[in-house]
Every structure is written in C-alpha cells, then in structure tokens.
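Q: Hi! First time doing this. I have a protein sequence and I read that you can turn it into a structure. Is that right? Here it is:
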Amino acid sequence: MGAIAFACVDQERHWPRSLVVRLRLVGAVIAMGLQRHRYHDDLAAMGQAMHWRDRHQIQWEARRAEQLRRLASHLINVEYHQRRRLGEALHEDIMQLLAATVWKLSPAHSASQNQAAISEAIEMLQETIGKLRKLTADLRPLSNLAEGVVGAIQWLANQATELHCIAVEVRAGNDVDPVSDDVRLFLYQSAQELLDNVAVHADTHRAVVGLRRTDSSHLQLTVTDAGKGFDTSRLKDIPSQEFGLFSIYERAELMGGRFEISSTIGGGTVATLIIPTSRD
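A: Yes, that's right. Below is the predicted 3D structure, encoded as structure tokens:
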C-alpha cells in the first residue's frame, strides 16, 4: 500500500537528492502503471473489434455461400423449365402450325378453295415465323445487345407491344453505354423478366422502362406500370414461387447492387434495379 500527496509551498525548500530520486522512482512506477492500464484497455478493445470483424466476416461469407447455393439450385430448375417451355413451344405451337399449313396446302383440301387455303397458309407461316423469332431471341439474347443495351430494351418494348398489346415507353439517357457485357446482359434479362411480369400480373396496357446513370459508376433500371398492384409482403415468398424476381434480387446483391419493388393495391408497381456498370 502507498499514498502520494500534493500540496503548495510559499517558500523555497531544499530537497535532498535521495528524496528527489525516490520521488522520481515513484513517478516512474505510477507512469508505468498508467501506461500498462492503457495498453491493456487498447488490447481489449482491439480484441473485441477483431472478434466482431471475424464473426461478421464469417456470417457474411456464410450468407454469400447460401446465396450462391440457392442461386445454383434455381439455375438448374430454371434450365429444366426453359427446356420444357422450349419443347412445348416447338411441339404445341410451331409443329401444330406447320402441320396445319401443310394440310391447308394439300391437294385434297385446296382443290375446292384454292385461294382461301393459300391465304390461310400464308398467315400461319407468318405466325410461325414470328414465334420462331421470339424463341431465337430468347435463346440468343446477345444478338439483341450487339448495338447496346438501349436498343435491346427497345426491342423488348416492341415485343411487349406485339405479343401482349402493352404500349411500353423507353426513357434512356445518352450516357448509359458502354457497359460491360455481363452488366448489359443482366440489365436486358431483368427488363425482360419485369416486362413479362407486367404482361402477366399487372392488368394494364401501358408501362415505362427507364434507364439512366445515378453516378459515374452505377446504372438504374426502372420498370413502372399503373396496373392493379399487389401486396409487397408476398415478396418474402419469392424464392419458392418466382425464379425470375428471385434471380434479380440475388444477382443484384452479388454484383454489388440492389433491387427493390414498391407497389400499392390499385396504385401500380415500380421495380428499381441499381447496379455497378462494371465488375472491376
């Protein structure tokens, strides 16, 4: 045990050298104790920070691994469904149209109504060509991206008008191209999925697609409709119900962006995707 006291003096005193040495020693001991205590606190704080960072890093890596696992699983499922859809389209639409065309042009059928049969056959062939073009575009999306993402999205807008009778207005900035190929493809696929959702669920005949830069390194894609809207609490079930939207959510996060949907029943829907313009 020990004590140290401080006081004031109003006249000069003589301090023996032995006392000064002892006081210096006491001061050194106290200074070392304070320094040790400060180092101990600093080490403890550093340890806590490292522990928090390690735990946060582990949690982040686990969540990212789970995202990749789910996305890979859904990619397998969507490949299966796309193959089945392609097979059904070829068998039920195109093959049936071609068979009906052959029948229309057969001598037994066309002998009595030659001109009418030929006209109907021409219409069927035109419809078949349109369906084949749609399938080709779905299978080779990069062909639509050769001249830039704006042109590709305009093509999607025209397709929505032709196939679903939806008037789609495209509003794009002049500085959205060029972007990297994977970003361009992701924007195209996202716009396609969101326009398909408008056609299937929104119950509207108008939509707007916007594409602009939010800054020098990010692009924003928005798809807006004035349709019937929906309860956004249903979005929590996306992984089990809708691969397309789930894929946009997951891929946006993996690319360092974000995807949001706001909607009110009877008030329309706005889907917003913001992503970096490159993967550097």
